[in-house]
Structure to design on (182 residues):
């Protein structure tokens, strides 16, 4: 039960943060969420 | 069970605190390893005789991590806020983004100031003290 709650909370945090990034228009893919840091800024030239 | 949940929250709190200090939210990937460890401990704690040992192990991990990180700055530089999605795309992708709030693509910026034939947009003069009605030319 505790493990399930931890998994649910983690999934909710990841989904919520991805939704926030989408709403703000940030170029963050779902895979980027699971790296240990945010992607480096490389602007299109 | 409560002890293990508190240990998990404390462990996540250490990670979140270090990210928030740099004014960035922690990416879920940064919390993933700690979460997986505590999920495994949670599964172990389903077995009644191992419950106390799992909670003690969780708190031991927290204390060990605290002793490692107290007084040290994280070496990573959080690149937050990240770049924005270009106007030419609907969804985020692996292609490079554009700085937020800037003119995002030449096509979109030129279409805003030009008419369909490519000429300059005409400004319709209005008498002083009147407001132009939207849609009226």
């Amino acid at each position: 039960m505790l493990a399930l709650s931890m998994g649910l909370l983690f999934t909710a945090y990841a989904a919520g943060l991805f939704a926030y990034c989408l709403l703000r228009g940030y170029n963050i893919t779902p895979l980027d969420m699971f790296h240990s840091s945010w992607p480096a800024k490389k602007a299109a030239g | 069970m409560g002890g293990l949940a508190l240990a998990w929250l404390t462990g996540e709190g250490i990670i979140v605190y270090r990210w928030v200090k740099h004014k960035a939210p922690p990416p879920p990937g940064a919390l993933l390893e700690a979460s997986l460890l505590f999920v495994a401990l949670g599964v172990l704690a389903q077995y009644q005789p191992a419950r106390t040992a799992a909670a003690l192990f969780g708190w031991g991990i927290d204390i060990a991590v605290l002793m490692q990180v107290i007084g040290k700055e994280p070496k990573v530089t959080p690149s937050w806020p990240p770049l924005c999605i270009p106007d030419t795309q609907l969804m985020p992708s692996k292609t490079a983004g554009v700085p937020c709030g800037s003119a995002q693509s030449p096509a979109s910026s030129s279409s805003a100031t030009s008419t369909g034939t490519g000429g300059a947009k005409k400004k319709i003069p209005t008498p002083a003290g009147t407001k132009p009605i939207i849609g009226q030319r």
Notes: Chain A touches chain B through 32 residues (CB under 8 Å). Residues 6 and 12 of chain A are 10 Å apart (CA to CA).
